[in-house]
Structures
1.
Amino acid sequence: MSPLRRGPSPYDPARDFDLRDPADMPWSTTCFLLRRLASPDIAERRRDDYRRLLARVGERVRPPFDQLPTGASPFVLPLEGDKPELMRRLRSREVVALDLWSTPHPSLPSERFPAAAGRRARTVGLPVHQELRPADIDRIAGAVGGGSQM
């Protein structure tokens, strides 16, 4: 196989969670992203999207995420349910959801925290970022639909 067509590398949690040396230069994407995200209206747009989606699917959102703290700038709305079925349904409706907390931090003795393991097994992150339109919120809520219970 050509080195350009290797396919995905195996998942490495230590690499994924690595925060890098703070003395290193920022990644080249950092300045690009900051220009797009460091705007005062971004957080308000995310809060609005969170509130609109929460109003539609809130019965499936567990505390403390069923309340939006003042000043928050959420990127996802954590929703609980039958995670594999919910992820499948969202993908089939072209909703790019996040498989939140699927892998515990490598330093975490996860066997000591069964409640956290249960949440990792059930929690999906619904997008609420600033680039969504009202029609996207409707589509996401519709894709969540019924069928998967908490």
2.
Amino acid sequence: MDKTYRPYTLDQRLLLPPDMREWLPEGHLALFVSDVVDKLDLGPILKSYEQGDGRGNPPYHPEMMVKLLVYGYCTGKVSSRKIERATYEEVAYRLLSGDQHPDHDSIAEFRKRHLGELAGLFLQVLKLCEKAGMVKLGHVAVDGTKMKANASKHKAMSYGRMEETQKRLEEEVEKLLQAAKEADEAEDRQYGKGRQGDELPAELARRESRLKKIQEAKEALEREAKEHAQREAQEAEAKIRERRRQEEETGKKDKRMKPQVPDPQKARPKDKAQKNFTDPESRIMKDGASKSFEQAYNAQLAVDSQAQIILAAAITQEGNDKKQLVPMAQKVKENIGRLPSRISADTGYYSEPSVTDEKLKEVELYVPPDRIKHEPVPGRAQESTPADDTMIERMRQKLKTDQGRSIYKMRKAIVEPVIGQIKEIRGFRRFSFRGFKKVEAEWLLICLTHNLLKLFRSGRMQWAP
């Protein structure tokens, strides 16, 4: 049985003008968004409405809600209240809504309910861009940017302060409990046992709730410290096995310091390790542009040089990018089906395990081990000596060649304008949602609309099947 929705059609005939589409000039972004959404597979969203007993008012048509949200993200209007107001005041929104006016609660609930499915549309739009010839996979640049979390950094507390505060609150709660006990005993003597007691004093309830939040945050930091120690232990053990293998092959003992294997059971959070009470999965990070510390997530993206199409996007809680090169390259392969010919990234992505990873052996990498402060003197690269023939030296020499300088110089022109367009032009600097999964989905939605705008401005309308 087909789901019943409220009537919705853009072909509704009016007296003046005769067609709602004539409210906007031909080639307007809203009309383009409408046409694209009509071509997308919204099956997972529509399927969720097939269950139920059919009672109550029919929901707004999912197609209309998707168009409003996608157009809102394209134009930097993500507030559900602003979108609701725009369906009355702005022609583009009024057209996309079919002259209906969903209230902000309905818009917010729809976005919240279907955020994962909306993020899933990223791949469909990417395929449209690829079909339009806007993806070449010749040179892909990877970069990250700190995006503010939907939480204040002032709502965070360090592990060391948690321990101090927990101890103080436990003492205060104990005193209040003792005072309450003495009051109960006094009332029992005065009125007799068995009388109905009053509710917990507000002061005691407030302290207990604060103590519970601190205990939960403290336990989360301790759990993360153990998990981090387990990963470090696995990496150290892998390095030790590799050293033994090399020693057996060469017959020479490795004189370097042996990797230390941490004990996860003894792992303890650093005193300065912090946890935010509003969005516990966000982290305090240093913003590279402002040099200030913010409650944030590290938003990653891989951009194709052909038309600045975002091929892959992800969110990480890591403050630096050292471990993101391989995962981002793998996401490009998952999305497009193959790896690019070359990948460039700034020095923050350099680590020997990343640039020597077997998964990237077919990719030409341009990732400097050091920050490049000045343009190198033109000319051929210096010949490396056997003593200098390390991965770091080989990468340095590679980036000193004419080709290396030319390719790496393009990195800024490929990926950094994309970040500028997202943060400066469209105004996305803070996520609307809280929690890692929701933030990651919203980042994909933001990147989806970036690609949609690139497709719109390219004028390549042959994407339609």
3.
Amino acid sequence: MPAAPRYDRPDPGEHDEYYTRYIAKVPDGDLLAMLEAQGRETAGVLRGVPEARGDFAYAPGKWTLKEVVGHVSDAERVFSYRALRIARGDQTPLASFDQETWTPQSGATARTLADLVDELEAVRRATLALLAHLPAEAPLRRGTASGKGVSVRALAWIIAGHERHHLGIIRQRYLS
């Protein structure tokens, strides 16, 4: 049986400096176990929010809670896709994405918060299935995304840190 992939904390040279703020939010430990627990935590928090609160934005020009949840799903899909391409040895530079363009076009505001949480959980299950079954050497593979070098394991940590970042904002600005 092949060795399972390890997702040790990435070195600073494995990702753009911008993502350091997300990676720093993730404690040391078994990243896949953290991603699984984090997914349950985030879904649990969001499932406790009244449906009407999903349309709340804490300030003019800010996303609604439903848009934030949709954004987290979208971003995780993008980071996972990048991890897949790089893990498979694809050296094609991967384009960036514009969250400010994507979010209003997502249709999140027309959906229920519960439906968006279901989708977020499905995205996390897909991410975990991908990361858990990559070849052992895949986390160290590197490619280019948004014009910067990045490793598969850095992308995995970015996924965790990005969600942690947004869950903090949700707790502080949407639920307080």
4.
Amino acid sequence: MNLHWSTVVLGRPGELFDDRYRLQELIGQGGFGEVWKAIDTYRSNGPVLETHTVALKLITTRDRGATWQEASILTALKSDHILEVNNADIYVDVPYIDTDLAATSLDKRAMPLGAEPEQAVGWMRRALRGLELCHQHRLLHRDVKPGNIFLTHSGSAKLGDFGNVTLMDADGRAAVGGDHLIWAPEFFKGASASVASDIYAAGVTLYAVLAGRMPYTGFKQLADLAEAIVRGAHQPLRDIAPHVSMALADKVKTAMSLNPADRYTSAAEFDIALAIHPRSRRFIPTPVHPGHLRCWTAVGKGADVHVCAIQGPTSRRVSIVTAHADSGRRITRLCCDVTQAQAAKRLRAVFGELRD
């Protein structure tokens, strides 16, 4: 898309943007524009001196002819599962959105280790409820990804970053937008954005939060990325995150189905599908011990247990060591030496036995 701007406003620390927002610190930047930590001077003035700090997104991916009808809907959306939009407007041809300032986002919290499945599911279910509310108001998010799901200081997850949001047409469609890494396969075949493509992006997001990385990475050319996405040529989730149960991996796979008709029909349906009973034992990816490749801690259902994958005597061998966290005593039946090709399968078996 070619954008033509008469004027582009680039934020500067200390600048008063739109005679309202005092820019403090640049906290995000990319093809979309800039995100600033800013003080809303309108809300900070009053009989009680109180500073209102917000996240102000200056958007450069929309042209000045954009209707911005979405703004009135966005500011009316109120939910515990959506990062609140306080104001949305256009200043000197630059659309901007003022939202609450969150503590962090899932890309910073869950990567590169990946998240414990029960925690990841809890975060995703809250974000899906926010996404469902958007869809009920005929809005497509178009950019659901780990960096756009935010955690509050209390740890609650909220869907945010509405810079790519757009209204559906009468057929529930809209122009394609958002990060290429979460594009649905049908986009590369000329299809429009829809509820189904937002569901696909939510599936990609949950995959990434569980695995600690996006399903499609390392592509330098868009054509190569497109080919991989259209074929669904990514590593199976449980090969990267063997601690994830087959049931949960299947739910992610459904959301990421190549055929839109095979995905969950709504964010609410995806949310309900994730309503699984918590296991008695949880598997938490942990920072690797010195010399190890991957490490997890199994907690609950008795004593905590470390599960570690260690480079073997040759580059083609991996040692899997399972030991009690307190004493270091090995659980010999769950220890073995395998080839690299066999490692993921054997790790899944170890987690399966610990889970039962």
